[in-house]
Structure formats: C-alpha cells, structure tokens
C-alpha cells in the first residue's frame, strides 16, 4: 500500500529540496542513464523552461538531447511520435496546461493508439510533462486542470505527484514506461520544500499505486496533485470537530488503484473525492461511481465530490472562490450523514 | 538578385511612411533613395535566405516525350511500367472487392499510380514511407503484402503490417498528422548518425491542415532528412483546389519555410521518380527537406461511397484520361522500341496473377480473436482492462453455449 512506510535514507544526505528540483534531477538521471532519452519543448533549453524545471540540462547534455523546439505543440508531440517510432524516448514539455490543447489530436489519434493499432509493434514511450492547476495567480489560460480530457483517452497513463519524493520517483517511472504518460505537475507545488536526497531518492512503486498519506477512521478523502496538501490540512482541522480523516493520494489516475481506494473506504465507510477541475463529468464522478459500485454495502453515506465549479477558470483575483479549500472540504465532511445530525 | 529586390522593398516602405512635416523643425535633406537621415531601418536586418533557388519550376517538370528521356535507364522505365500496370490492376481489384463487400471502403488512386509507385521506388531499404489512407498502392509497391496493406480498409485490424519490419508507417487517416511523425523519425535517424530518409505522402486537401505547416516548419528548422510529396489530385472529396488555397502553387509553400519546392507532372512516372530521387538523396546528404508537388488527377470518386457527378462534369475528367500515367509511359516505351506486344502481355499477366492472389486472400474470412482487443492497449493490462476482458470472455462463452 505505497511508500508510507518506506525506510528513510541516511539523514546526512537529506536537505530541503523543491518539487522542481526533484523533477529536474529525475530528467538529469534519465538523460545520463539512457542516451535515447531526449527532452524537448518550448524554452526548455537555454532558458531552462519558464518554471526552470529543466534548468542546466541543455548545458550538461547539449542541444541535441535537450532541445528548444519551434513554438507549436502539435508539432512538438507529432515529431516526438516519429522519434519514438525510431526507438527514442522523448520527454516533452507542454509549457502550460491550456497550451497543450493544440497537441490533443496527436495525443488522441496517434500517441494513445499507436501500440494498439500496430498490435504492439510501435509502442509510444513518450512522457508528456504538463504544468497544471491554479492557485498561482495566473492570467487566463495558465491555470487549467485538464486531467479529465486525458483520462477519457484509452492508451494513456495519467500521473500527478503531490510530494517532492513522488515527483522524482513518478517521473523516473514515467520516462521508463513503454507506454505514453501524461505527467501533470501541480504548478503551485513546484516551490514547496521537503527534506529529500538527490543522491539516494526514495523508491517509488510502479505507476498505478495510490498511497495513504494520513491514516484515519472517520472518512476517506480521495484526492491527488495540488489538492493533497489541502486535504491534509483539512484533516488536521477536522480533528477539532472530532473527525479522524484518512487521506488517499492517488498519484496515478490511470492506471487507477481501485484496491487501495476501496480498502480505505471499506474501513471508514464514508468517502469524499476532492479535486480542482470542474466536477461535471470529472475525475470525481468516475471515482464516486467506482466506489459506489464496489463498496456499496460498506457506505454510511453517499460518496460526495468537492471540486472546482463548472465555470471557465476564473481570473486570478477571483480564483480563491473557485478552488476547493479547507472549508469546502470540511463542509462536505459535515454532510456525510453522521449519527445525531 | 534577391538582395536587390528586397532592398528596393525596404526603400518603398520608408517612402510610404513619410508624412508632411508637423512643424517641429525642418526635415533633413533626403538621400538619393528618398530616405532621410535619422529615420533608420530595423537594426541588423538582412535576408535570412535567398528565396530564388527555392522557387519551383515555372512549368511542371516532365521527362516523357522530351529529349532528356533518352538519358534514362531503359530497365528503370520497364520497371516503372510494370509497377504502373500492376498498380492500375490493384486499384481495379480493390474497388471490385469493395463492391462485393469484401472491403469496408476503398479510396482509389486510379490515375495517380505514377506518384504512388515512384514514391516507393525512390526509397532505399533503410528509408521510411509515411502513407495516408489513400496510399495503400505505395505501401504495396514498397513490398508490403497487399492483404496486409488492406486490413484497415477490410476492417479486421487498424494496421496489418509491422512498421518496423517494413519501414512503412501505419496508414494515417487524420489528414497530414503523419507528416510530423516523418519529421521526427528522420530527425531521430540523423541524431543516431544513420543515413535514413523519410518520405511522407499527403494530398492537396491535407496542405490546409495545421500539421502540414508545423511539419514543414520543424523539418526546415531541424534540417531533417525528409521529403514531402503532395499529390495534388484536384479534389479534397468534393472541394476543388481553388477553395483550398490561394497560393501560386502548392510547391510555392516550400519557400515560406526555407526549403526548396519542386513542381512535377504527377502522371509522368520517370519525372516523379527522378524528382523524388533527387530530393531523397539531397536529404540523405544533409541538405534538408524538400516539398514536391505532383500534379495528377483522381479519376475515380473519393471512395466507392462518393458520387463524383455531384461536383464535377465528365468533360473535366476527359483530358486527364488522355493524360493517363500508364498510357503515357507505354507510348514512350513503344516509340523507343523498349517493349512490344509480348512484353506488354507479360506485364499484364503478372498483374492478373497479383489480382487473383489478392481476391483469394480477401475472399477468405479473416480469423479474429475478440480477446485481442485488450492485448495492445498498454504494455500490461490494467486491472480495469483485466476485469473488462473477463466480462467479454464470459459473454463469448455464453454465446457459444
């Protein structure tokens, strides 16, 4: 059930690191170990990316391994398909969530289907890194949560880290995967720090394994990416109300870890799915349906969803009203049909 | 030449920007070219590339019926002819199989056989072909088994051949989306130091797609060893070229990307073959990409499901029937004594043999395993797909009971 109990490396090697640094280290190690790995995208070379996640990689590995491409997302992903056909392992950066949409045709019509179409002859070992989500004060088109679009496309893996250690481990696993992985990086967690060791990073299990971030008995908060810290904070606040909440970090949305999620809900009997993206036809809808189908006789209350509203992502001065926060999570917990209510 | 014309353009712009004095001091005396001191051009501007050599020929390049054809290897001409006759027969057979319900649909290349065949023959074994859904003939001419090339259109599996083994990418249905793949593959080959070239096929309609633009741009910036062959067959289903583009020619589009454009008679098989060979070897030698526009005509309707009489008269088709790629090459071979009646009969017999084999293969029912639907979605089935596979297995077992 995840790495909650993974042994900590020697304390001497651990020091504060950001998620951005861990992601960079993951690419650096992958580039060093495998000459077929290529990093490509807009501004990823000389500048090091607009979030500096690829800072220094072009200087270390040269412009043929870490490439500033023309500004055209469909072209970036389309050429990555051809590179993968020839046996390379492209790691593509889409500069922002909403800038990835021009690449959707390549993603849906080719990246996700090439293995299937060719009966396994042409796998697509492509990692598509997408900085996503709000809460950074971004102007229009810089704060979308686009995971549901990707999740509705068979053939793709969709992964999102919430911790520094997972950022490294999941990105290494994504690059090593022979399947295409949409790797969603929560922008507002880029600069959050945790003690971490670049020399001896924690082992992370294969893609598709959720982890219990906080054990609890009253109800399960099922969440991922940027909403994980929100749920952990809500769980702390809920203690004062007498609730002991469990928090499950999905890490990988596809493959989906039914086992870990359902085991938790069967223990607690109550569940809330929390995410930033719009609720209608969103990830939470699928998870609520799966949990209801599989855990019906263990449930004390309907599975609830706490999500962004069904509105275009708001301008930055209004985004705090849109994003699910601690209070909205706690309000939902209060509605879980507690005895005496 | 290019520099002087560009320089005069700059002068023109400066003159048009001139305005009557607003009264804040007297304008300085003009230079001989009409510009005044203090009004400077953009700093450090110079033309990035001379567009002159990139421009396509004024007329479509031809070989048949010209003196230059005498320099061509007779063996090559005979090989092209054999492939054209075989290709024409293949088109007829595939269309017939569609009418018999053996294929779900067949987009014919009747009239375009010279482009299809020349594209395949211009490549060396290490090169890759990137076909669109209309290009099964090019795939067959490259050496893929016709039955394997037709699985997409028969409907038993999306791609019927191994792209790595055949060096033929899967037939691409979304228009122009295969072009960036060709660029990426060619780029990857160059990065690995291989002398591989990619040749990508697209139609006139496909040149309107964004992926056409992005692919040509990436190819030129990366100097990727790739050749783009546009078969301008006159129609995108029903829409003629003048509703598709306002460019002088499709070959002219190359100039905007900084690569050479070539315009060729697409029904002159030796001409298409020569232009493509030159472009392929230019790419192999590190010279970068080329855009080739081949002028041809889709003699048949878009597919068997299309009715061409709704958008064109037979009078329009007639001149193209007279400019037929098979007849043009046959005339050349006969006039020069390179083939006789017996030779032609032998070529036609070989084509009949291919057609008979194709009929036999396509008339056999394909053996399909529905459980394979779950086998190639991911490297390993997810737990969700394992559950769904079990569901289908149970449904199949129930059917058998």
Report on this model:
The complex is a heterodimer of chains A (about 350) and B (about 400). In chain A, about 35% of the residues lie in helices and about 20% in strands. Chain A contains 12 helices and 14 strands. Chain A has helices at about 20-35, 55-60, 75-85, 105-110, 115, 145-150, 165-175, 225-240, 260-270, 285-295, 320, 325-335; strands at about 15-20, 35-40, 65-70, 90-95, 125-130, 155-160, 180-185, 195, 210-215, 220-225, 245-250, 250-255, 270-280, 305-310. Chain A is globular. Chain B has about 400 residues and is an alpha/beta fold. Chain B has one domain: Thiamin diphosphate (ThDP)-binding fold, Pyr/PP domains (Rossmann fold, 3-Layer(aba) Sandwich). Helix content of chain B is about 45%, strand content about 10%. Chain B has helices spanning about 1-15, 75-100, 115-120, 135-140, 145-150, 150-155, 165, 180-190, 210-220, 255, 270-285, 315-320, 325-335, 340-365, 385-400, and strands at about 130, 200-205, 225-230, 235, 240, 260-265, 290-295. In chain B, the strands form 2 sheets. Chain B has a 5-stranded parallel β-sheet, sandwiched between helices. In chain B, strands 4-5 form a two-stranded antiparallel ribbon. In chain B, helix 2 (about 75-100) runs antiparallel to helix 13 and helix 8 runs parallel beside helix 9. Chain B is globular and about 100 Å long. The model of chain B is unreliable at about 1-25 (pLDDT under 50). The chains are: A alpha/beta (about 350), B alpha/beta (about 400). At the A-B interface, helix 3, helix 4 and helix 5 of A face helix 7, helix 8 and helix 9 of B.
């Amino acid at each position: 059930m995840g790495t909650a109990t993974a042994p900590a490396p020697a304390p001497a090697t651990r020091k504060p690191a950001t998620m951005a640094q861990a992601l960079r280290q993951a690419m650096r190690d992958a580039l060093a170990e495998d000459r077929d790995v290529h990093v490509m995208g807009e501004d990823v070379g000389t500048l090091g990316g607009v979030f500096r996640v690829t800072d220094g990689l072009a200087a270390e590995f040269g412009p043929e391994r870490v490439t500033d491409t023309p500004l055209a997302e469909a072209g970036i992903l389309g050429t990555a398909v051809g590179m993968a056909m020839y046996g390379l392992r492209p790691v593509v950066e889409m500069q922002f969530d909403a800038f990835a949409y021009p690449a959707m045709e390549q993603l849906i019509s080719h990246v996700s289907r090439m293995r299937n179409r060719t009966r396994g002859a042409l796998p697509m070992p492509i990692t598509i890194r997408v900085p996503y989500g709000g809460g950074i004060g971004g102007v229009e088109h810089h704060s979308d949560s686009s995971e549901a679009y990707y999740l509705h496309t068979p053939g793709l893996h969709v992964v999102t880290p919430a911790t520094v250690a997972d950022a490294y481990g999941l990105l290494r696993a994504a690059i090593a995967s022979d399947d295409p992985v949409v790797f969603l990086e929560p922008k507002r967690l880029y600069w959050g720090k945790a003690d971490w060791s670049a020399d001896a990073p924690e082992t992370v299990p294969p893609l598709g394994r959720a982890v219990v971030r906080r054990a609890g008995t009253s109800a399960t908060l099922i969440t991922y990416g940027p909403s994980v810290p929100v749920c952990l904070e809500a769980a702390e606040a809920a203690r004062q109300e007498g609730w002991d909440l469990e928090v499950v970090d999905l890490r990988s949305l596809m493959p989906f870890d039914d086992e870990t999620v359902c085991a938790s809900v069967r223990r607690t009997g109550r569940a809330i799915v929390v995410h930033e993206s719009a609720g209608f036809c969103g990830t939470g809808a699928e998870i609520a349906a799966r949990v209801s189908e599989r855990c019906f006789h263990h449930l004390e209350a309907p599975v609830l969803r706490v999500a962004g509203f069904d509105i275009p992502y708001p301008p930055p001065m209004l985004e705090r009203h849109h994003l699910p926060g601690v209070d909205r999570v706690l309000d939902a917990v209060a509605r879980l049909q507690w005895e005496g209510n | 030449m290019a520099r002087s014309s560009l320089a005069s353009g700059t002068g023109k712009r400066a003159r048009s920007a001139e305005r009557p004095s607003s009264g804040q001091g007297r304008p300085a005396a003009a230079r001989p070219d009409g510009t005044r001191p203090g009004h400077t051009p953009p700093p450090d501007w110079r033309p990035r590339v001379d567009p002159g050599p990139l421009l396509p020929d004024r007329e479509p390049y031809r070989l048949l019926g010209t003196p230059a054809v005498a320099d061509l290897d007779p063996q090559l001409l005979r090989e092209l002819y054999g492939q054209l006759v075989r290709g024409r027969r293949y088109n007829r057979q595939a269309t017939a199989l569609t009418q018999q319900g053996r294929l779900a649909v067949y987009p014919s290349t009747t009239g375009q056989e010279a482009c299809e065949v020349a594209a395949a023959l211009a490549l060396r074994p290490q090169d890759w072909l990137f076909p669109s859904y209309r290009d099964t003939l090019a795939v067959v001419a490259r050496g893929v088994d016709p039955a394997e090339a037709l699985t997409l259109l028969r409907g038993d599996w999306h791609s019927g051949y191994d792209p790595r083994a055949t060096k033929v990418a899967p037939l691409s249905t979304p228009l122009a989306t295969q072009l960036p793949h060709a660029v990426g593959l060619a780029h990857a080959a160059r990065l690995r130091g291989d002398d591989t070239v990619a040749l990508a096929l697209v139609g006139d309609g496909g040149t309107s797609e964004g992926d056409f633009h992005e692919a040509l741009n990436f190819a030129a910036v990366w100097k990727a060893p790739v050749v783009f062959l546009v078969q301008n067959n006159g129609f995108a289903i029903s829409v003629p070229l003048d509703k598709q583009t306002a460019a002088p020619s499709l070959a002219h589009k190359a100039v905007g990307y900084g690569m050479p454009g070539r315009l060729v008679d697409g029904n002159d098989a030796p001409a298409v073959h020569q232009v493509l060979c030159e472009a392929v070897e230019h790419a192999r030698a590190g010279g970068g990409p080329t855009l080739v526009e081949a002028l041809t005509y889709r003699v048949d309707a878009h597919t068997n499901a299309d009715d061409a009489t709704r958008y064109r008269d037979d009078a329009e088709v007639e001149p193209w029937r007279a400019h037929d790629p098979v007849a043009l090459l046959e005339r050349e071979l006969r006039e020069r004594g390179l083939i006789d009646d017996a030779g032609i009969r032998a070529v036609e017999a070989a084509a009949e043999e291919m057609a008979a084999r194709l009929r036999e293969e396509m008339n056999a029912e394909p053996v399909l395993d529905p459980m394979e639907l779950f086998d190639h979605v991911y490297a390993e089935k997810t737990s969700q797909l394992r559950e769904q596979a079990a569901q289908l297995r149970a449904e199949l077992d129930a059917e058998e009971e």
